[in-house]
Specification:
Layout lengths: L22 H15 L6 E5 L6 H14 L3 E6 L7 H15 L6 H16 L30 H19 L3 E6 L6 H17 L3 E7 L3 H8 L3 H4 E5 L5 H14 L6 H11 L3 H14 L7 H24 L4 H13 L9 E2 H8 L7 H9 L3 E2 L5 E4 L4 H7 L3
Parallel strand pairs: 1-4, 1-5, 2-3, 3-4
Antiparallel strand pairs: 6-8, 7-8
Length: 399
């Protein structure tokens, strides 16, 4: 069939043509927006799940909902080697700029921007080189005495409180969206939790919506014990059969193309219902199918191409980031893992036994793989892959 009309989009964070199976999350966030608009207290939100389940797509969709309600919004992607000061300052700058035209007192906006600038500049040490001093592009002078103490917990709490007051003046809210939230540095995680706690106590109209890997709740809990009650956690999982079928058939129907029922069976078996894989197999199958309806034979013919594409872009690129010692650890995990899903945790003691090593000697490899986002530890003494089907991929590779 015509590849130009191919509707599927297997891209990182790219919205699929049909956002299937996420109605519950979208409706729940609509309730959050409405409650905040009415001055009702509401918790910030955390989405967790494996890679490839569509967390970033959902995060972007939630942001679109906030924007449609005339909220101020900003989005950042956390990095383990970067403080929150600069990205949070940039995101809140964007959010307040969206609200500024509706604010009746320009001086209040300038006052906040002065605090925001002081917060951002406080992240650079006094002796920093010029190239390391970030200028946030704010025309007003930095103020002193607010959000500039150098203690990130105090400063972030004050900044969030001041930003929320701007939203209150306008009669709306602010939402800060954070992707890869598990990569926030430990001190910044503690500060984020403290700031959200203060906002919840005040009933202030600023919420954080984070997305991250399955161990993100444990990261937050290790920082502040009350984080278990501070956030509303939503686990984002693979699509069920009906949603996976909808993700494939709805875009195809808009192009006048149908699927044979057995083709949908084969698609679900191949993709496991993971949204990224659904798009990858859908794209390859469309390009190989000679006509409508798409058949199970078309899926089987196209599967090797989809798997080769996944092997390079989804699995291989991650595997290449690992050192030889880390790859040895990953291969042992793949051999021992009972399954490729979130329940496929492997005891670290079993990995050590398989490799003939002392568990302590493998800690550097394990910790490095966690930092690289290739594995996570959901429970003490166990590890699991962050990438679905990664174990199956590794078992298919030559040693």
């Amino acid at each position: 069939m015509d590849p130009v009309r191919n509707p599927y989009a297997p891209g990182a964070g790219q919205r699929p043509p049909e956002l299937a199976g996420r109605d519950r999350e979208l409706q729940a966030f609509e309730v959050v927006l409405e409650r905040v608009a009415r001055g009702r207290p509401e918790r910030s939100l955390v989405l967790t799940g494996l890679r490839g389940v569509g967390k970033t797509v959902l995060l972007n969709s939630l942001r679109s909902q906030a924007i449609s309600r005339l909220w101020g919004s900003g989005k950042i992607e956390a990095r383990p080697d970067q403080s929150l000061r600069r990205p949070v300052a940039a995101a809140l700058h964007m959010a307040v700029r969206e609200l500024a035209p509706r604010h009746r007192a320009p001086d209040r906006i300038d006052e906040f921007l002065g605090v925001l600038k002081a917060f951002a500049l406080r992240g650079a040490p006094a002796n920093a080189k010029l190239k390391d001093r970030w200028q946030p592009g704010i025309d007003v002078p930095a103020t002193s005495g607010r959000a500039d103490s150098g203690d990130i917990e105090i400063d972030l709490t004050e900044l969030f409180t001041d930003a929320a007051s701007i939203a209150t003046d306008v009669g709306t809210g602010i939402a800060l969206f954070i992707d890869e939230m598990q990569d926030i540095q430990a001190d910044d995680v503690s500060a984020m939790c403290a700031a959200c706690h203060e906002l919840s106590q005040l009933g202030a109209p600023l919420i954080v919506v984070g997305a991250g890997l399955p161990h993100l709740p444990a990261v937050l809990s290790a920082s502040k014990s009350y984080s278990e009650r501070l956030f509303r956690y939503q686990r984002i999982d693979r699509l069920d059969r009906l949603a996976a079928d909808q993700a494939l058939t709805a875009p195809a129907e808009r192009e006048g193309v149908d699927y044979d029922p057995k083709a949908l069976d084969a698609m679900y078996d191949a993709s496991g219902g993971y949204p990224y894989f659904v798009q990858a197999y859908g794209k390859a199958t469309w390009d190989h199918a000679p006509r409508s309806p798409i058949t199970a034979d078309d899926v089987r013919v196209a599967a090797p191409e989809a798997e080769a594409e996944l092997g390079v872009g989804f699995f291989g690129s991650r595997y290449e980031r690992a050192t030889p010692a880390e790859r040895e650890y990953l291969r042992s995990m793949a051999k021992l893992a009972p399954s490729d899903d979130m329940q496929g945790a492997v005891p670290t003691a079993d990995i050590a036994k398989d490799l003939g090593r002392r568990p302590a000697s493998l800690s550097p490899a394990r910790d490095a793989l966690i930092k690289k986002g290739l594995i996570y530890s959901g429970e003490r003494g166990t590890v699991a892959f962050t990438v679905p089907h990664f174990g199956r991929y590794l078992r298919s590779q030559p040693s």
